[in-house]
C-alpha cells in the first residue's frame, strides 16, 4: 500500500508512486425509549388491566407523541386459526415459542417491537396464497417479513399481526448464463446470491452492508438502493419480473425474463418499493451483469465538502463507464468506526481529515482501467481536490476500506441512541443540512453525515448516549421541512414503514398520496397487508 500527499514534492513524483501501487394490543414501542415516555407506557398498561383502553398504542419516535390505534375491523387469533395453519404448514412451520417470537417481533435496531403471537414459515407460493386467502377471509392482519433488517419499522408488527416470514423459500430456480438473468425465490439471502453468481462469473447489481441477513424479496419490496446504484441503477431497472400474492390469495405471475415487454401496464413496479403493503413477493427475476476482472479501490481524503462535490463531477467525467461506487463519510463517521471496532484502522493515519471518499472502479481491462484511475487521481491532486489517499493493492486492503464505510451504521448502534434519516437531496445541498443540524443541536448530540454521494443519498444520523425529547424536538419536523424545502425525498432507500408513514406529504402531493391509497384499497380492500405502514394512518382507517 502506497500513500500520497498533496505536497509539491509528492506531486512531482506522484506518477511513479502510483505506478507502484495498485457498508389485542401490542407493547409496540422504542426498546431504547426515552425515560420521559415510560410513564405513558405504564399508564397504558394500567388502563389495559382495567379494560379502559382498546387497542391504543403510544409511540415516542417523533417530536409529538403519536397515538396508533389498532384497526377494530381486524380479528384476533384463536385456536381454530392455529389448527388451520398447522394443518396447512405442519407443526414445525407454525411458531408460537416466545423466544423465537421475541426475535421476529423486534426490528434490527431494537427500536420497534410488536406483540404477534404467531410466526408462519411457508415453503411455497401456494402456501403463501392459502395463508393470505384464509387471513383475508378472517380479517387477520399480516406482516410480511424477510431478513428483518429494515430501519423504519416496516418489517415487524405494530400490534398482534400474524408474521409471514418467507425465509424458507430460498431456492434458486434458474440462471441463464447467456442473458445473465437469475430467477429465485424471495427468501434467498443476498450474500448467498452474490456467492452463487460469483461462481458463475456474474455479480448482483445490488450490494448492501446487511447482505449477510437481508433477503431478495425484502430488497425488492423496499426498493433497496445500496452501494453500487451509481453504476447499475435501482431495482426498478434491474428487476425484470416478479411473482406476488395478493391479499385475497390470488397469485400474480409477472415473472418475466424479457428485457423488452410492452404489453400493457408494467404492474411489477407497483410491488417494487411497496413494502409488502400491496402483496407478498414470492419470486424475483433479476438481470445480473457479468463479473469484470479489473476492480480498483481508492480511499481518499478531502479538506471540504466543496472538494467532494468537484471530485464527484470529475470522476463522472474522467472515469465514466468504469465508475462503480462513490461513497463519502465525514470525520465524525470515521471517528465512530475507529472507536467502536477493534482492528479497524484509518488507511490515512497521520492525521484526521474532514471528509473521506471511497471510489471503486470496475472494468474489463486492468492496465487501461488502472491507468485511467491513476490519471484521474493525479489530476485531482494537482487541482487540490485530494489532500491524501491510498490505493488498495489486494483484496484484503480493498475489504478493509469497504469495512470502514459499511461499518458506520453498526458503529452508530454501538455508540448509543441514534436518530436515523435517509434522505435524497441535490448533491450541492446535502452537507448543508448536516452543518445546520450541528448548529441546532450544539452540545446535545453528535451529528454524523455519510452516504452515497454518487446518487445524492445522505444518511443523516444524530448520535447521543440515550434518547432525549430535547434532541428529538430539535430534529423533527425540522429535518423533514428542510428536505421538502429543497425538493428532496424523506426516504431515499429505506422506505417509509411505520416511522415515516405520516410524513409522506413532505415528499408527495396530496393527490399522489390519495392515488396510492386508492391502489391499496383496490388490491387489499380489507387492509390486512402490513397495516399502519407506508400510507398516512388517516387513510388506513
TrEMBL record:
Record's signal peptide: none
UniProt-recorded Gene Ontology molecular function terms: (R)-2-hydroxyglutarate dehydrogenase activity; FAD binding
Domain FAD-binding PCMH-type: 112-291
Pfam families reported for this sequence: FAD-oxidase_C, FAD_binding_4
InterPro entries: FAD-bd_oxidored_4_C (IPR004113), FAD-bd_PCMH (IPR016166), FAD-bd_PCMH-like_sf (IPR036318), FAD-bd_PCMH_sub1 (IPR016167), FAD-bd_PCMH_sub2 (IPR016169), FAD-linked_Oxase-like_C (IPR016164), FAD-oxidored/transferase_4 (IPR051264), Oxid_FAD_bind_N (IPR006094)
Entry annotated with the keyword Oxidoreductase: yes
Cofactor(s) it depends on: FAD
GO cellular component, one term: mitochondrion
Sorted UniProt keywords: FAD, Flavoprotein, Oxidoreductase
Reactions mediated catalytically: (R)-2-hydroxyglutarate + A = 2-oxoglutarate + AH2
EC number(s) per entry: 1.1.99.39
Assigned protein family: Belongs to the FAD-binding oxidoreductase/transferase type 4 family.
Protein known as: D-2-hydroxyglutarate dehydrogenase
The species this protein was found in: Gossypium hirsutum
Gene (UniProt): LOC107897617
Amino acid at each position: 500500500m502506497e500513500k500520497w500527499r498533496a505536497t509539491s514534492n509528492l506531486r512531482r513524483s506522484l506518477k511513479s508512486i502510483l505506478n507502484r501501487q495498485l457498508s389485542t394490543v401490542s407493547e409496540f414501542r422504542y426498546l431504547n425509549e426515552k425515560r420521559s415516555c415510560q410513564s405513558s407506557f405504564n399508564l397504558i398498561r394500567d388502563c389495559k388491566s382495567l379494560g379502559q383502553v382498546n387497542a391504543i398504542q403510544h409511540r415516542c419516535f417523533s417530536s409529538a407523541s403519536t397515538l396508533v390505534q389498532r384497526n377494530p375491523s381486524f380479528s384476533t387469533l384463536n385456536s381454530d386459526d392455529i389448527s388451520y395453519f398447522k394443518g396447512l404448514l405442519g407443526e414445525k412451520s407454525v411458531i408460537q415459542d416466545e423466544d423465537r417470537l421475541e426475535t421476529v417481533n423486534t426490528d434490527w435496531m431494537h427500536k420497534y417491537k410488536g406483540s404477534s403471537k404467531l410466526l408462519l414459515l411457508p415453503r411455497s407460493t401456494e402456501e403463501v396464497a392459502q395463508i393470505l386467502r384464509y387471513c383475508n377471509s378472517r380479517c387477520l392482519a399480516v406482516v410480511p417479513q424477510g431478513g428483518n433488517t429494515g430501519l423504519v419499522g416496516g418489517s415487524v408488527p405494530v400490534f398482534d399481526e400474524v408474521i409471514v416470514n418467507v425465509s424458507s423459500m430460498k431456492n434458486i430456480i434458474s440462471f441463464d448464463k447467456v442473458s445473465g438473468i437469475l430467477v429465485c425465490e424471495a427468501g434467498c439471502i443476498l450474500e448467498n446470491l452474490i456467492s452463487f453468481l460469483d461462481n458463475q462469473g456474474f455479480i448482483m447489481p445490488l450490494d448492501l452492508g446487511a447482505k449477510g441477513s437481508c433477503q431478495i424479496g425484502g430488497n425488492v419490496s423496499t426498493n433497496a438502493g445500496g452501494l453500487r446504484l451509481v453504476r447499475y441503477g435501482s431495482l426498478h431497472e434491474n428487476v425484470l419480473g416478479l411473482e406476488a400474492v395478493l391479499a385475497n390469495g390470488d397469485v400474480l405471475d409477472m415473472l418475466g425474463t424479457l428485457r423488452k415487454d410492452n404489453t400493457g401496464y408494467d404492474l411489477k413496479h407497483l410491488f417494487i418499493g411497496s413494502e409488502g403493503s400491496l402483496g407478498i413477493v414470492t419470486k424475483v427475476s433479476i438481470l445480473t451483469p457479468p463479473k469484470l476482472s479489473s476492480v480498483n479501490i481508492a480511499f481518499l481524503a478531502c479538506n471540504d465538502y466543496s472538494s467532494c462535490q468537484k471530485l464527484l463531477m470529475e470522476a463522472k467525467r474522467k472515469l465514466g463507464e468504469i465508475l462503480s461506487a462513490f461513497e463519502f463519510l465525514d470525520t465524525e463517521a470515521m471517528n465512530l468506526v475507529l472507536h467502536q471496532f477493534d482492528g479497524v484502522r484509518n488507511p490515512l493515519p497521520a492525521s484526521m481529515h474532514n471528509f473521506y471518499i471511497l471510489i471503486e472502479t470496475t472494468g474489463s481491462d486492468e492496465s487501461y482501467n488502472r491507468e485511467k484511475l491513476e490519471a484521474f487521481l493525479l489530476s485531482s491532486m494537482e487541482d487540490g481536490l485530494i489532500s491524501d489517499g491510498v490505493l488498495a493493492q489486494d483484496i484484503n486492503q480493498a475489504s478493509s476500506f469497504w469495512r470502514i464505510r459499511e461499518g458506520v451504521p453498526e458503529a452508530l448502534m454501538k455508540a448509543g441512541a441514534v436518530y436515523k434519516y435517509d434522505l435524497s437531496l441535490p448533491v450541492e445541498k446535502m452537507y448543508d443540512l448536516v452543518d445546520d443540524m450541528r448548529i441546532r443541536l450544539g452540545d446535545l448530540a453528535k451529528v454524523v453525515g455519510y452516504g452515497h454521494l454518487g446518487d445524492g443519498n445522505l444518511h443523516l444520523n444524530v448520535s447521543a448516549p440515550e434518547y432525549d425529547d430535547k434532541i428529538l424536538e430539535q430534529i423533527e419536523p425540522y429535518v423533514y421541512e428542510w428536505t421538502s424545502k429543497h425538493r428532496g425525498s424523506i426516504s431515499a432507500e429505506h422506505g417509509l414503514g411505520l416511522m415515516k408513514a405520516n410524513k409522506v406529504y413532505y415528499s408527495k402531493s396530496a393527490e399522489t398520496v390519495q392515488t396510492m391509497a386508492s391502489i391499496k384499497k383496490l388490491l387489499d380492500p380489507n387492509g390486512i397487508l402490513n397495516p399502519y405502514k407506508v400510507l398516512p394512518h388517516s387513510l388506513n382507517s
